[in-house]
Amino acid sequence: VAAHLGEFGSVGVRADVQSVIHAIVYSCQNATNSESYLFLRKELPVRLANIMKEIKLLPEHLLHMPSVCAVSDLYRMSFVDLLEFEKGDCNDSKILDKFTDALIKIRNRHQDVVMTMAQGVMELKEAHAINANVEANIQYFLDRFYMNRISIRMLINQHTMLFGESVNSHNHIGCIDPNCDVVRVIEDAYANARFLCDQYYLASPELVLKYHNADKTPARVVYVPSHLYHMLFELFKNAMRAVIEHHGTGADEFPALEVLLVMGTEDLVIKLSDQGGGIPRSVMDLLFNYMYSTAPQPAVSGLDTPPLAGYGYGLPLSRLYARYFHGDLMLTSFEGFGTDAVIYLKAISSEANELLPVYNKTCQRQYSTPIQTHDWSSQVHSAMFIRPFSTN
Ligand code: W6P
Predict the structure, then answer these.
(1) Which of 259, 279, 281, 284 to mutate to test the pocket of ligand 1 (most atoms within 8 A of CB)?
(2) pLDDT surpassing 90 at residue 25
(3) 308 pocket-lining for ligand 1 (C-beta < 6 Å)
(4) Per-residue pLDDT tens digits for 211-237
(5) Is residue 87 flagged as an active site residue?
(6) Using a CB cutoff of 8 Å and minimum separation of 24, what contacts does 86-90 make?
(7) What band does 271 get if pLDDT is binned at 50, 70 and 90?
(8) More confident residue, 101 or 291
(9) Fewest Cβ atoms nearer than 10 Å: which of 100, 157, 249, 315?
(10) 9, 53 contact by CB (below 8 A)
């Protein structure tokens, strides 16, 4: 495995398949099962190898946490599973079927990895004092680790949906909807977040949706509806909780959530405004910090788990989903009043390529270089205040 890791874990291998990514992601109607097979049997090991090499650069303490070792083993297993297809005949339908089955097995194997990795971080926090360097390294790593995972699952889903047993849902290309109806996804995410909110608080804020479009065409993009849904559902849950808790569960009325959807030529922007009292600026960055977030809990049925409680990994992961296709997710808060959450998507599909972490010298340096110490200071020059206006 180690020898193969070296072979696959180079950027060069990936460079020559960029055009194929495009083929797979955007014009799968034309890609055949065997073409996809030839691409994935190489690309998936590359992506697995890239992140396995990065795991090895983690701070010593974290590297030895049982949950991190467990995750590492899963990646090694999947890597080995894929190597079996290295020389398989792409015209043999038995092999193609076996490959699809292997992908499904891999997808299932990695089901709980987000949670397991988060547990590793929790274990580390409990066992060791964490300095700023370690914290920065973990933040850097987890963003890349989860982004790598998003990209791998995307490729696996594409292949299994296009060439697997289940029939492709109408008009979708795998999990991509070339005509993704943004308003529908917004309303869907709102309805489901509202359901949770009503269940927990017995109340929920209304939604006011405004749509601005210079071209007067409906807001449709080439996108993965499940990714957009994931982001919006997360933002709606946060906004609803803020509004209800800020105004008190007993309040008669709650200020509505406002969504402004703007279709530009380059960007499609979704702004979600709540009047939930906002958050202080000092807390803002912590919302995207894995170390300060609570680990995602396993789904348990029962009424004792508050469905909207705690900032989990929802926000950092949502931002990764947005960035995966070169969009972004940002929060702006007005402490004492409310918060604006903004999702940026690329309106043109040709610009919405994958954004992938690569393993190279720059990345290696990130782990070994201490974080920048401040070269600005807020030190007060006491002399200024002792004799501020002396003119002699
Ligand atoms: C808040 C905190 C937050 C996070 C994400 C989205 C909306 C909101 N509102 O108060």
Answers:
(1) 279
(2) no
(3) no
(4) 998 666 778 899 999 999 999 999 999
(5) no
(6) 86/41, 88/37, 88/41, 90/34, 90/35, 90/37, 90/38
(7) very high
(8) 101
(9) 249
(10) yes
